Amino acid sequence: MNKLRLLPAAAWLLAAAVLVPLRAADQPIPLSFNPAFMDPTVAPGADFNAYANGGWLKSTQIPADKSRWGAFDMLAQNNWNRIRGILEEAAAQPAAPGTNARKIGDFFASAMDEAAIEAAGLQPLAPELARIAALPDLAALSLYLADAHQHGGSALFGIQPYADQKQNDTMQLIAGQGGLSLPTRDYYLDAKYAKFLPQFAAHVAALFQLAGSTPAAAAEEAATVLRLETELAKISKSVTELRDPLANYHKMTLDEAAALLPAFAFKNYLAAAGLPATETSLNVAQPKFFTGLNALLVAHPLAEWKTYLRWHALSEAAPYLSAAFDRENFRFFGTVLNGTPAQEPRWQRAAKVLDANIGFAVSELYVAKYFPPDVKAKLETMIQNMRDVLHDRIVHLDWMTAPTKQKALEKLGTFRVVVGYPEKWRDYSALTVTRASYYGNVREAAAVESRRQMAKFGHPFDKAEWLRTPQQVNAYYQPSAGQLVFLAGILQPPYFDPAKDDAVNYGAIVAVIGHEISHGFDDKGRLYDARGNLQDWWTQEDSAAFTGRALKLVQQFNGYFALPGLAINGQQTLGENIGDLGGISIAYEAFQRSLQGKPRVRIDGLTPEQRFFVAWAQVWRTKYRDDALKRTLASDVHSPGPFRAVGPLVNLPEFYAAFNIKEGDPMWRKPELRAKIW
Q: For 151-161, how does the pLDDT look when each residue is reduced to its tens digit (9 = 90+)?
């Protein structure tokens, strides 16, 4: 299923049938809170990130196969090393046919069989390229695109079944903009990213040459692709604009949707993509994109669109084809766009593909082996403490009126919190996996997932379904489901460490919990009511007060320059910045409540309050390659790590008190400029 952009030499040879022992580089990376990461020569009031993380920043190099490196990435690497063992064992010791363990092992084995992949060359993609070459008209193109999208393609636009945002007891198909190869529309249109366009064209030409085009023909084909994608970029919304759920909700009948694309057999496309005949409406999230797309389909000859489709088929298949395609794909998307010198080892690239395609099957084995049951109970207690603090905060807000407070409290009371892993595992019985074709397995997994998604129509929206696999280092808030999810992968050091004092855990995992709870009341989340529907439950007065307070965060982060001439987009990152501010503020109060009646002990020379704030900063320690940082600024709704380490803190009076930061110190922010929302 093509997802919308609303909302990224073998270490082991299968033939040997022998597991490689963990190398020294694969041993767990120590991640717990550590005073050695600090730089005591830097005054906390001068540069708090350098004070909290300066020792680590000086001693750490970004690994050659990574575009950035930080606490988040190091924990993820620990998890991938664990998953490697699971996958290698499943491949070397095949389980019974039809079991998830067998499917995992066969999928991984197909990915690691470089000899077979090399021998196949371009052949796995040949039927797809032949279909594109034979397309006679736009009507046939629409049917081809339906099949391509079902098999994981991303050309032109995307579709995704999800809850109707204004009536979430029913399912709805969402159609939205897409079809770009570069990270965002800005890469095509903004002078800051102009250097990438000729390099993109060279990459496109290189893949066409590998597929058999002459150098001259490949150059022309690349020019066509760049021209069409630039036109698509011009009619696309920005990352910031895509964050507004109200502006991206346009429910219409199938006839109304088809009228946006009269040159394209849209209703035939929807039927071929699997939309049941009983469905009579959908959400066209960006109508202007589709009217613009129709004009482009008419303005450019079919031959150009066939070139564009060939490019997308080649680009999407390249990581699963022979080494020449894989290397060229990494050269551009890894090295050129992100500045990463070397590819990750093949086993890790394969592990990430399995996570994306059959990840919940891997999760069952990961959770059983690595997730301690007692963590779940401990986190649930912390979460309740945070809800209690936010409840009291809402009750005592001085800027919100009583009617809106009542509805906010009602919403807080409906939040569902899930820790570790889902109650019900995903069913992969419909998926057939073989060791014969890596690319074939990826396509088959995408098709099975597409059918699973389309089968949701006619059933209520499943608010308990997970959107991410438990082994990922992450947490998320799903507004339509009213669900807060804390994945097993993040519930370990440096985010959660039972061996550390409360100050460290409250500054890390409890603040992360607060971050996710705050998402229910950030600039997007606040637009959803207690039932998870898009509905304006705010008075005009309260909405204006919230906007004014949030504007201080926008202005604050607009003033942070991650690279010379490149500032953070405060509006683009507003939701996450609100989450950070709310998370650390609520966690601090919860921590203070936890200290009542307990001795206040200095550890490593730091007071409990100081350890709390240093713990927060240390979980966001990160180093970036310059091009990766540019990409983050253009496409990510999160601020870069060093700014998350400091940005929310300078809004808290308690932070200044903890380190005796005074007016005139670089970290000082005037009281009238400080943001305070929840």
A: 999 999 999 99
